[in-house]
Amino acid sequence: MSDHNQVKITKMDFSGERTKAENPLKIQDLTFRDGQQSLFATRGRTEDMIPIAEMMDEVGFWALETWGGATFDAMHRFLNEDPWERIRTLKRYIKKTRFSMLLRGQNLVGYRNYADDVAKAFVERAAHNGIDIFRTFDALNDYRNFETVFPVIKECGKHFQGCICYSLTERRMGGEVYNLEYYSICIKDMAGLMAPYDAYVLVKAIKEAVSVPIHLHSHFTSGMSSMTHLKAVEAGVDILGTCMSPYGFRSSHPALGPLVMTLMGTNRDTGFDIKLLSSINAILEKEILPKYRYLLDDTKVSIIDTNVLVHQIPGGMLSNLVNQLREMDALDKLDKVYAELPKVREDLGQVPLVTPMSQIVATQAINNVLFDDEKERYKMITAQVKDLCYGLYGKTPAPINPKIQKKALKDYPGGEKPITCKPAKVIKPELDKAKEDVKGLAADLEDVLIYALYPVTGKRFLKWKYGKEEPPKEVRPRTLEDVKAEQELIKKARAGKLVEKKEKAAPSKGNNLRKFNVFIDDEYFEVGVEEVGGSPIVSYVQQAQSQIPAQQPVTVAPSPQVLPAAPQPQVPAAPVEQPAVPAKFTTTASKKAESDSEGTPLKAPMPGIIVSYKKQVGDSVNTGETVVILEAMKMENALPSPAGGTIKSINFAGGDSVARNDVLCVIT
Ligand code: MN
Description:
alpha/beta; TIM Barrel; Cyclin A, domain 1; CATH 2.40.50.100; nine-stranded parallel sheet; four-stranded antiparallel sheet; 21 helices; globular; binds manganese (II) ion
């Protein structure tokens, strides 16, 4: 390595002018994408980026990460926002700084490998709309999945950044799979696993071997990454990823400010204006972040999670995992799922836990914990695990457990023998069919791509976009006024004053008002009673002691029919203890009650969205045969028939959201 990148203090006296560093460290800002993805489940809205957009353009970033990853998914699914429009809008405010997106290789911004025609069209449209740098990774580090997108990126005249997903099988670097020979160029430490001295060794080795810039992307989750960043700088790293401080730390990234101060007066000084950074931070803190605070994981006080060194789950998916278990009423199984994760990961070839592999491994681990018994492991294998076993994602870093592979590929449509070629080779073109499917609904290629990548939720979004369907309340933005009103309520609740006066109902007190003390057990109320037109009305009830728990209005759980299946903060249904009686005697929806009385019901084992029914009413089925495909936690589950017979009734249709235990169909 040349001396060029070594850190040297060039100026000890800070009273004078700040001279331009000889080799400034370059910074990619992650606030708009990974920061809000890691902390706020990617719910950040474009309107909340605009207030700081022009200031961010002045900082001097190497690039701003504005797109990719979960943004495309979350925007059309939860925010009723067109993902393409975000790039175009931000581009109007940010004219100097390049835009970077995270591209999942042939997975694009979805959860499977798409056909070459879709991949080419997607990259071309992304470049056309304003993406300048394509930070490209593959969840298996199988670089054959770069072969289609790479030439398109170059043809569009854009910057290609190849990524290596940093992963471990041991606590530190080494072991059979992830040793030094495995890496080159750019490192994506999505779970914050990289220890500072490992970063030093790794970056130094790569710098000695290649001349292209080395970029480190490391999450803060375990608490190491600020130190890891510094050691990487000492080893000569060229570019680091950070966040504006309100979007930093926790499962996100180290904040920019401390790094700028650390390097000030050295030959790696970023040159960034610390005052500008603090005014951006102030806007975020006061005007933007209060709207998203409710999404922060407030279940713990600590902002670091050293547990991640054991389970290796990347930032963005930890909260999803907890939410999914909560929706399944299985939060008590969290520790079992953590224990199952490394086993599943080993069975599936020690894949890096990055999207979509992280979801694939986590969902399978949940399925194993919930549905396996002593007699049978891997009872419910997701469609994505089957695809992985078939080779549709590419080559796994270590071989897949042959027993699991054989089980997964039983009756697999492509055949029971896995492929070894580049996955896209066996995926037939998809774009023409997608165009045909949304004819009359999609206005341009961008619309078609939303559908091609996300058939169920993408189609629903297009209906919202063109006014063919009313978007539900849940997708509307929260305003600062909403937040203020909530904070007032919380304040009142804390002070024990949550009994609200019905303002309209209370007439002014007259001369005939009489006061009564009303005693209930050891509490008493002062009640004012005044006779009006012959019949006494209670004009006010004041709680005299604060021991009575304030009566909260009962929140009715929203109907599962209108809710998207994926995690969102929701009021759990009232925790009514269900007596152990047959389902038909409980007060559930009539659909369930009716259908339980005759025949065998197939119930949803978890909340999700129906992808499709494989059988129609009147069809005969065998026990174990697939009847319904249910999307849950972004994975598809083939639900087997619990009995042999004939499909008597089908209660839902493709695209419907279902709750756990909803009866999907009945077999007689
Ligand atoms: Mn990341």
